[in-house]
Amino acid sequence: MPIRSEPPLVSPPTPVPTLDELEIEGNVGKIAPDKLRWMPSFPADTPAEVLRNEFETNGVVHVKGVIPREYFETMAETGILKEGTDPTLGIFCGGNPTDFVSADTAKYVDDNPVAKRHIALVFEAVQSDWAKAFCENEHILNFVHKFKPDWAEPFCFKRQIWRSNIPNSEGSTTGVHYDHIFLRGGPPIALTAWVPVGDVHPLQGGLIYLEDSIPVARKIEDGFTAQGRAKGFGKEDALSAFNSNMGVAGMLSRDAGEFQAQYAEGRRWMVANYEAGDVVFHHSFSIHASTTNRDPDGVIRLSADLRYADREHPYDDRWDRAPYHAGDGL
Ligand SMILES: O=C(O)CCC(=O)C(=O)O
Ligand SMILES: [Fe+2]
């Protein structure tokens, strides 16, 4: 797939606003500009030691220009896209947002036939050869080797997640979490590649990362472990992201601003302007969340979360049993 160097735009490019102008929202409200900073980004040819150092100290590395893009064609059949627009632009049809819930919120959908069709297609897509090849593409794997030089046989978990986050869908942001909450069946060494598919500018509801968050996450996780021990948790409960110590859907908070006020000790949320081809690599203890998609042109935020581990190191094999499906308990 070719890298699209000149994205065809439906309207003049949205200028990237300054931090003061940004209106970044969680599920509850706006995050003040002084609680935000820009996330550094690194060109794809940055020396591996520099990338690794950033990964180990800051927990997240935004790498520019890693891979090609293209996915929206497969979604056109769901009716999610505006008729007559180029599917690769991902323009939302403007319909009822709850008809197009993301695959990860599928568990909350009961009898909505439109939503069911959309979800069925998403599940079909994640099982396709195309999605598998995407997950295993050499561009990302090259970087997995850079971040994890001691991994002999890196692989991508079968359970990869594709998310379509539509504009102005209230209460649908990904809550605050670190990935190890969901990957407790292995040590906290799994590597996540969060892949914006198409450009995701700061108002389009992409991920925000808490600066220097690894120590914060470790402390929280140690607290959960201690609480579990005190309650006499068995193995299954101890590994579960949904045990009685955890918040709704395993999240630390449903709102980035609220979490920050409570736990961040002055750390800011890092926002970024993601462009097609970029990949963000993050540590299992990197704290992140998504924001509300307020794209002025109605563009859907499409992204994939791909997670990597090594056959020669212990890993959470619950994630490698089957492709993502609703009700898989993870
Ligand atoms: O894209 C999202 O909203 C969440 C992604 C995520 O949490 C991850 O890739 O680890
Ligand atoms: Fe995550």
UniProtKB/TrEMBL annotation:
Residues 1-20 are annotated as: Disordered. It comes from the Eukaryota. Coiled coil: none annotated. Pfam families: PhyH. SUPFAM superfamilies: Clavaminate synthase-like. InterPro entries: Phytyl_CoA_dOase-like. This is TauD/TfdA-like domain-containing protein.
